[in-house]
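dumping this here so i dont lose it
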């Protein structure tokens, strides 16, 4: 646990990346697996994760992210995109995966499937989209923690125009919406922010024991 906390103190929202340093394929695969293993409501994972390496695409995205240099200078750009709708087919696909993975009959999961369909189906379209967007934050958390362990920097961003990123990546046609973007790579020695003390609330301010 001490190492975990050390890593949390090490990490920060990097303001300037070293554009000459690239994440190895092995480390990238580790980050992908960390994202894949993230917790998710019902385990449904109602989102897609885009790993944007193409420099031309990233140059197009940069203006939509208020011109922030991390978009183009980082080793990779991660875009989390939630499903804007949830259908019975999504749930059926998940149940089929559960049955195959755990070697149990799909019929044994019918009740659970009906429970999910009833609860999710009762939500409005806006509620469904809002709910699935929240799931991407859980995946981002796993990315942040795994990256810190590998001493890879991440800058989580909400500072972008989703509609523009959606258009650039063709997300609307896929029933997706960009909720978070996260440049990943290695901090530049010129980034003075890395030397600043981390500012957080004290335990007394933050925690309430009942």
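and the seq i came up w/
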């Amino acid at each position: 646990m001490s190492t975990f906390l050390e890593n949390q103190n090490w990490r920060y929202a990097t303001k300037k990346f070293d554009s000459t340093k690239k994440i190895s394929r092995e480390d990238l695969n580790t980050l992908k697996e960390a994202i894949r293993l993230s917790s998710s409501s019902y385990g449904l994972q109602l989102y897609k994760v885009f790993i944007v390496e193409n420099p031309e695409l990233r140059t197009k995205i940069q203006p939509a992210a208020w011109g922030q240099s991390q978009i183009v200078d980082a080793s990779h750009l991660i875009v989390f995109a939630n499903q804007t709708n949830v259908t019975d087919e999504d749930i059926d696909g998940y149940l089929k995966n559960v049955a195959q993975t755990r070697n149990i009959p799909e019929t044994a999961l019918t009740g659970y499937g009906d429970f999910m369909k009833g609860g999710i189906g009762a939500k409005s379209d806006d509620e469904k989209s809002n709910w699935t967007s929240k799931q991407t934050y859980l995946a981002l958390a796993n990315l942040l923690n795994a990256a810190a362990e590998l001493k890879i920097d991440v800058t989580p961003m909400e500072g972008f125009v989703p509609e523009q990123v959606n258009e650039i990546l063709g997300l609307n046609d896929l029933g997706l919406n960009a909720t978070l973007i996260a440049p990943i790579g290695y901090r530049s020695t010129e980034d003075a922010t890395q030397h600043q003390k981390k500012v957080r609330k004290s335990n007394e301010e933050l925690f309430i024991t009942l």
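The chain is about 45% helix and 10% strand.
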